[in-house]
Structures are given as C-alpha cells and as structure tokens.
Amino acid sequence: MFGLTFEKILLIGIIAVFLLGPDKLPHYAAQLGRLVRQLRDMANGAKDRMRDEMGPEFDDLDWKKLDPRQYDPRRIIREALADEDPFKDQSATISRAEPNPEGAYLKRKRARDAALTALEPAPFDSEST
C-alpha cells in the first residue's frame, strides 16, 4: 500500500504522537478512522452502482485480466516477434473463398510504389495541402 512498510507506519505514528501530543491524538485518530470508513463506503457504493448498471455481466468479469500491472511491454514484444504470422492461413482461405476488391487496389499500389525509384521525385499534388 503506497510502498509503506510496517516500520514506516510505526515511525509516522511515533512522530505524530510527539507533534500532536497525547491530548489531541485520540481526536485526530477518530477523524482518521471516520475518513477511512467514508472512503471504504464510497468505494463499496461505486462497486454496487456498477453492479446494478452492468447487470449480471459484472460478476462474470475477470478483473485480474484488466489489471494494467500484468502487462509487461518487453514480454508482449518478445511474444509478438516470436510468433509467426497468425493471419497467414486465414488470408489464404479468405482469398479463395471470395474475391477481394481491396486486393486489386493493393496490387496496383505496390506496383506504382515499386515503379518509383529513389532517384525520381515523389508525385506532388498541390490541392492536397
């Protein structure tokens, strides 16, 4: 919890005893207890309202999958580089099943891009800007 260990919390408590004094400390401790209780009630209220609005899907959610701390970018990149093309087989079956009009466009675009050499200037369209 916020990187606080038991020793740090104990040290903060000892400093609070010296700064506040024994006569004011129970009052501030009671205020802290009320604040923590109010925060807990607000969190539970938000959870209950979420459950009411989402319906039964709320209980079916796996909240551990949505935790952003589980995502390690190095692991994701390593897995992505190690995998072969997952859409390789799917694209072959899709292209055999039905003609793809976007495929013809991509072939023309690739042919046009291949025709441009490094020495030629790129085409310029004055109306595009």
TrEMBL record:
Residues 87-109 are annotated as: Disordered. It is a single-pass membrane protein. It comes from the Bacteria. It is found in: Membrane. One of its GO terms (biological process) is protein transport. GO terms for cellular component: membrane. It holds the Pfam family TatA_B_E. Keywords: Membrane, Protein transport, Translocation, Transmembrane, Transmembrane helix, Transport. InterPro entries: TatA/B/E. This is Sec-independent protein translocase TatB. It comes from Cryobacterium serini.
